[in-house]
Amino acid sequence: MKIKPEFDLIPEDGWRKKIYEIIYLSDTKAGRTFDIGLLILIVFSTVLIMVETIPIVTLQYYKEFYYAEFFITIIFTIEYLLRIICIKDRKEYIFSPIGIIDFLSIIPFYISLIFPVWHFVAIIRMLRILRIFRIFNLADYMHDGHFIVSALKHSSRKIYIFLLFMIIFIVIIGAMMYVVEDGKNGFSSIPQSVYWAVVTITTVGYGDISPATPLGKLLSIIVMLCGYSIIAVPTGIVTSEFRRRRSDLKCDRCGNDDHGDSARYCKICGEKMV
Amino acid sequence: MKIKPEFDLIPEDGWRKKIYEIIYLSDTKAGRTFDIGLLILIVFSTVLIMVETIPIVTLQYYKEFYYAEFFITIIFTIEYLLRIICIKDRKEYIFSPIGIIDFLSIIPFYISLIFPVWHFVAIIRMLRILRIFRIFNLADYMHDGHFIVSALKHSSRKIYIFLLFMIIFIVIIGAMMYVVEDGKNGFSSIPQSVYWAVVTITTVGYGDISPATPLGKLLSIIVMLCGYSIIAVPTGIVTSEFRRRRSDLKCDRCGNDDHGDSARYCKICGEKMV
Amino acid sequence: MKIKPEFDLIPEDGWRKKIYEIIYLSDTKAGRTFDIGLLILIVFSTVLIMVETIPIVTLQYYKEFYYAEFFITIIFTIEYLLRIICIKDRKEYIFSPIGIIDFLSIIPFYISLIFPVWHFVAIIRMLRILRIFRIFNLADYMHDGHFIVSALKHSSRKIYIFLLFMIIFIVIIGAMMYVVEDGKNGFSSIPQSVYWAVVTITTVGYGDISPATPLGKLLSIIVMLCGYSIIAVPTGIVTSEFRRRRSDLKCDRCGNDDHGDSARYCKICGEKMV
Amino acid sequence: MKIKPEFDLIPEDGWRKKIYEIIYLSDTKAGRTFDIGLLILIVFSTVLIMVETIPIVTLQYYKEFYYAEFFITIIFTIEYLLRIICIKDRKEYIFSPIGIIDFLSIIPFYISLIFPVWHFVAIIRMLRILRIFRIFNLADYMHDGHFIVSALKHSSRKIYIFLLFMIIFIVIIGAMMYVVEDGKNGFSSIPQSVYWAVVTITTVGYGDISPATPLGKLLSIIVMLCGYSIIAVPTGIVTSEFRRRRSDLKCDRCGNDDHGDSARYCKICGEKMV
Fold first, then answer.
1. Domain CATH number, residue D98
2. Are residues C85 and C188 both part of a single domain?
3. Could you give the CA distance from residue D25 to residue D191 in angstroms, rounded to a whole number?
4. Looking at beta carbons, which residues of chain A come within 8 Å of D196?
5. Is ipTM over 0.85?
6. Which of residues 231-250 of B touch A (CB under 8 A)?
7. Do A239 and D236 touch (CB under 8 A)?
8. B119-150 tens-digit pLDDT
9. What is the pTM of this model?
């Protein structure tokens, strides 16, 4: 299965075309090496930003982190500039979501050079992690990713309705608990009680707020048993969609889409099905 | 697919018929605009009631909330009166569940005008949120909602039996934990232990009560592993029902209901299936 | 569908046969009334025993509870004696599980009359709740209950193996956490750490023990993500068994068992399928 | 279905062949008895190591545990030596994963005889529990185990992608919560916030870290509802794979693999399907 590059505006002159092929495509060996290198750099850089926020680490290794970030930003900047240089329609790239993420992941560092900023600005750099998707875009894995996303998309309407039911149920339960617990024991307002209801129905159960009165506990028991039965619904929706999509399989080679449930190979041309 | 209005008693004279069409139907542009306006007002009003219960907010913006509620109640009252005026059989509407909810969501405000009431009465207004269902009733989404509800209804008997098993299991586990923990560590009575058992089996796990003795922990481990395996049962019930209903699809246009598992279009007339 | 009574040894003489029909069968109106009465009494009595353990309640209403229990025990005793009198093979009933439960649910009261006992003995009376199953045995609901139980039975071998994997995984994780957390932060021994591992993998998450060191938290993250993926396995096992059993449907009337997936009525004789 | 022994290098001379058959095979009565004995010893020994780590127990029964461990290690050592003696290609066994586990589960004891070691070294002996798999390898249960493992293997690519999505989602949520909660209330660094995000999305919910600001709670609500919907995805993946594998059933006797969904017996030769 061939996948089109996102920006298929190949420039005509020699060196720009070569850079284009390395940066945007992954057919060639150089292209693939570039992708892997970029992937490692993104993961490394993300881990760095995360570790940087640990107070003790920052105090001790402030300089090392600064230089590492400096180095990474330089590389990403060069890559960003090359990406702009070697395509035809620059505007399309710069204002595409992918281009904005590329830009946002380098700019915070330069801002911090000019004036001292609120250190949370630095966390915008975390958006770099989204760049991973671009690389996987070109990879083999895309097919399975598509499968999951499209199954979710097709069952989305049912899931929306289910969520609407859930939200109304949660709001009413929250209001009831607020009344039952008389605004005490952490149920100090309806939004607070709604937070408790979500924590309970999703079976997360932090325990930062929990019912203290007998009536509140009784109501909780009912809510929990409901939540326990209800959890089956989204699973049922998604599972049945997954199953349906299986029998919708379309062969990539010959296009035949009339396959039985358990098809592993196209029954017309023998192509392996994913 | 056409959906009948809930109260199909159209009055004959001109202006009442027009109002009827705006309020009760959503075929016309005016009707749809009315529905969307009402939806926004309901959501806004619900959020207002919720936020109102936050202590700091009430203290600072008491007046603003009062006037907003005043304004909303006036609108809902006018709508309520119009609903009564423009249909034939008024009794049917007033004493229908939908009519009672409409009434209950405006009356608390008027009561609070006459004499100061326990402030929890005000929360009855939260029932307004149920009015959302009326609007969605008329919408496209209804079909999927029906799908979920009817799947749950058809598997309800199996779910009831499962819940009966669960409840008996929970009560016995609760009694055992009460004995094992010797009435200490929060397991002060059987109802309390049953509350713990529900919190545990549904995997909510607040941690407000948790076993402290070695034997209690051993029993908990068994209970948790059971709960983990048992959670598959309602999911299995609902999923298999969902799957079955898929193959029960009936075409809305030609009525043909003999479709394969993966039917997306009616095989007789080509109508798109939901 | 006809269900045989558990003890089909009908005595021949008149009054004993009549009592037998009331107590053991539910064909007649008297039999059904008896069953419903018994059901109410069992539920009432179970709730009573539960409430009795609440300290404040016992102090205030000691006498009332004593008399209620006295009254209930008398009725259950009479019922027990009638059950013995009106069947042929008494030994079979008395030593059957059902007979032993009947006996155990009345004896603690009589023991407490003779000498003061450890008050936990009284909780043996909770076994009464198991008597509910006898009543439902005779009811319509049995069919669906059988469905669930037999689906679980058929997938039990897969579930056993899954549990074996789980237990070994849990024990190893427990040992690792004990080492990683160095026996501190609640991970004071391997059994304690195994308890934590079960609490975590089943997603109960009390929070009475939770990792405190960075390495412990990292290990926990891996364990939680594993547990999250693994939960799909028992669900998958049970769901696929449920689906299989559907197509195994056997018509109660004509015995035909060749039905398609979505059969609601027997395709030979038109009997409704459950 | 016949299962080949792991090391099929049977020596030719008499007594070694007999020992080989007892230790490595389970066809003979002696072989099966040996397996069961070994299983009991492994379980007993594992429980011993676990209990040994409980502080009070160690203090009181130090000697008893020492002698039990001494006794068990001797048996395992004899078994290890016999395993080496009675096969042809010793290297293959010794350096196979199974051989290394066998070695690691006896060596810590001997090391502790020579010089006092960090007591966590003793926990390496816990690896003994993995030896259970060898015994089950030869047993009937293997078939179902294979079923589960191969279903997971076939859906692994989808699960990997799902986990990749999850991890990126978790990291971004963690970073957002760190900013929202302003590094307070336990969200002291991004790794810490990521730990919280995993605890929340997997619905474990310890409650050691929980949001305290209104905005943090709002974000948590969204995260929890997402997690609740997302949990359906791995279940859907695995369930649909389980279902597919069912129809892939291959008869052990005649090799026919064209069976319907609900096949319990091979339709060619009547062999029972698992």
1. 1.20.120.350
2. no
3. 50
4. none
5. no
6. 231, 234-235, 237-239, 241-243, 246
7. yes
8. 677 788 888 888 887 776 555 556 666 777 77
9. 0.84
